Amino acid sequence: MRMQVYLQEKIDNPDLFTGRKRELTMFLKWIQGIKKGISMSTAFLSRRKTGKTALLQRLYNLTFEQNDGVIPFYYEIREGKRWALEFCTDFFLTFIYQYIAFKSRKPEYLTDPFHRNGHFAKVREIAVQEGYEYLLPWIANFEALVRERSLSLIWDAARDAPRLIAHQQNERIVQIIDEFQYLNSEIYRDEAATIVADDFAAGYMSTAEYRNAPLLISGSWIGWLRNLLHTMLPSRFRQYTPEPMPDHEVLEMVYKYSQLYDIPVTEETAYAITQVSEGNPFYTSAVFQSTCPEMDLTTQDGLIQTLEFETLHDHGTIKGVWMEYISKIFYNVNETNAKNIVLYLCQHRDHEVGRDELLKVLKLEMTDFQLEQKLHALVKADIIEQGRSNFYYQGVRDNIFDKVFRGRYADDIAAFDPKTITQEYKALYEQAQTKYRALLGRFNQTKGLLAEFVIINQLRLHAHRKSDVFRAITHNLPEDFVFVEYEHVWSYTTTRPDQQNIQIDIFARAPSTGSEQAAEPAYALIGEVKNRDTRAFSRDEAAEFAQKARILQEREGVEKAVLFVFSRHGFTRDALTYLREHHIAWSDDEGWLGE
Known about the structure:
By secondary structure, the chain is an alpha/beta fold. 47% of the residues lie in helices and 11% in strands. A five-stranded parallel β-sheet has the order 2-4-6-1-7, with helices on both faces.
């Protein structure tokens, strides 16, 4: 779905946002519930580099764009020491500027230097200029508290400003606070940053209960944030931990990245990437952004070489991110014992391991209680996982983390051979191939569930070069139609609660400046893909598709388009009549599923 970007997203290119449809739909409905006063403050717990921030920023932009009674506020608590007075001032001014930006529909107020310079005179001027004089007492009160340097009152005023202003104006606000766990570790009471404000999060004990401005908080250190919620904010937040992205969403991401980075893949290697990445968008994107020499993602050997580079080489992005993460943990936990514990759990991550086994096998010179404390710290840091009780633990169930860790500490593992990881990647690839072939077999040697993505790939890479070939296997095309090099080709989904939700298998946007193949602006292509074994495409399905396509054209401003249906099992007679009458192209030729 094309949308205007109001708050700049870290992924920068909006087209890179892929998947997380379940979470996006759920949280958009949750935001709609704020208008009814039924949405409870929620904690979104997800490990680093799993697309959490991208999702939260996309929620902000969709809510801003929707302009339907809920005002979005987004704030990221950054890692790094900050004086509490500066933090509170920044938090308050960021909210005020975002509030004015939304109310005035002027996103320029979201950008620096407006909310970073701490100048109260400027924000007062803008509030008056835009007609929101009722904000002036709030700004004046906060400025007075800053002058008095009454820290507890300053934090109370900053923290409660969203809900109190919402109450005064009979409005609804959603507060999206990213990396919430840093609130208790990175904010300092004194300007010299020597006294940590380790109870700031507790201030939300009451604030989080109000339904007119509930919070959606996140944390990439899951154990740390969960511990904070249990000890300081019990029963104040509903907790949500996302599942790995489903295969079809990761596969969509693979094809989209293949197009955006201009790095070709085959159907087999694309499916292998979805399996190896285990639903983690960071791993998927790192493969395509790898600096591996002579990278080739079209062969088994080329993909394995790229994965080895990313997980074992010092210049690998995946290795770099994980080692930064691990080093921070080992700095605070005795490295030798922690390293040996994690290595042992990695080696035996197929089952839970008890503390008695760790003490005995690793010959740890510590009490059972000391070991429990160390294991608790590692769980809190997401380096290992809690078992069925505090007595049992397990290695993190992440194939790539396991290989990064073992590769880094290879010398500490008896008889470790780095070639082992290569063999493991080959085994994972072969498992993916087996699963892929099973899909093919289940769908009579066609591309099965992958058909939609195969056709997308055809339109991205081949159709414009073989326009006559693809025209010949497609019926009912306009006489002047040619396949062109499309601006974007992707699977189109909307999850807007204020509008009818639609999902269209293929949307190929025509180049905005026309094409060399056509004298006039080219046709966009809006497609439906049915790859069933037994049931032909029906008239009712054709009518439903035509209705969805009309909605897409209206929302996307597409004036010139051809609607197209691929159905491997053919069409009913009524469906063909409907398609002809409504000028919809169709094909059941499996040439669309081959190169």
